[in-house]
């Protein structure tokens, strides 16, 4: 068993004073030596954090002890070390940025547990719809799923016409995403637009992999930490992506080593080593090229980082992180 844990979670539950709670939550993470990203919003919490097993257990217990968050379901993974380099607890308007005019506490798609999803996913009357960004489904998705060429969930209304034919068709629409959070709003939006029989994979791809083996999820699942992608399918794994440079099959996704590019790309090990983790020869000439260590994950370059006092950027400016309101 590995010594660290990675916790992925969200909950839609009203927070009356997000600024005050953000401070309390930040201090809790500091006390437990957790790193990661947490979003506090009037509508709830959304976070991914990493830490030692005992610290993560204490964190989960603390949140479950709060009546507002007693219903949080944590997706728990193992790791050899922290999967983040810093801690950020931020205030935002939404726990997942969508700008969709919906409230998941009032209406959302029918939740399917992983085993239920597994039984339904191959039904000819079922349509799977991926609600993630294009770079996420490029490296992994369910067999036969509908995907949209969108950068973020805000663009969903621009793609509704692509599935307009499903209205009134008696097809079961099942939405899915990484951990389930996007689908709460995406499925609610589909219902508001006149779609019927709308479902969502509860807990997302990650929970499906952990509890039902990940069957028929091709490729790997993109995650927002320094692992970049994680395997999901333990039953019939396949590779769906190719190396950006040479075209060979690979699921290795990295960020381009050129900071001015920083594109998410799939790059095989050979091309990564040969081209220093860059996606083009022009990127390879970037005078600020970052050193490629084989992972393709680059945290912001800072000096003397302290979650309590802020950190010094490469330009020498101190950035305070005790309060971050976006």
What features would you describe in this structure?
With 326 residues, the protein is α/β, with parallel strands linked by helices. It has three domains: 4-91, Alpha-Beta Plaits; 110-219, Oxidized Rhodanese, domain 1, CATH 3.40.250; 241-295, no CATH class. 21% of the residues lie in helices and 24% in strands. The protein is built from eight helices and 18 strands. The chain has helices spanning 18-31, 53-65, 114-120, 134-137, 181-192, 204-212, 269-274, 281-284; strands spanning 4-12, 35-41, 44-52, 75-79, 87-91, 110-112, 126-130, 140-142, 172-176, 198-201, 217-219, 221-222, 229-230, 253-255, 264-266, 302-306, 310-313, 318-319. The strands form six sheets. A five-stranded mixed sheet has the order 4-1-3-2-5. Strands 6-10-9-7 form a four-stranded parallel sheet. Helix 3 crosses helix 6 (204-212). The longest helix is centred in the N-terminal third of the chain and has 14 residues, at 18-31. The radius of gyration is 20 Å and the shape is globular.
- Helix content class: 10-25%
Number of E strands: 18
CATH class designation of the largest domain: Alpha Beta
Reported CATH architecture of the largest domain: 3-Layer(aba) Sandwich
Unreliable stretches: 301-305, 309-326
Q: Helix count?
A: 8
CATH topology of the largest domain: Oxidized Rhodanese, domain 1
The radius of gyration is 20 Å
Tally of structural domains: 3
Query: Which secondary-structure class do the elements indicate?
Result: alpha/beta
Q: Give the termini distance in whole angstroms.
A: 38 Å
CATH homologous superfamily identity of the largest domain: Rhodanese-like domain
Q: How much of the residues is beta strand, in percent?
A: 15-25%
Tell me about the biggest sheet?
5 strands, mixed
Catalytic activity: uridine(34) in tRNA + AH2 + O2 = 5-hydroxyuridine(34) in tRNA + A + H2O
GO biological process, one term: tRNA modification
Keywords: Oxidoreductase, Transferase, tRNA processing
Family: Belongs to the TrhO family.
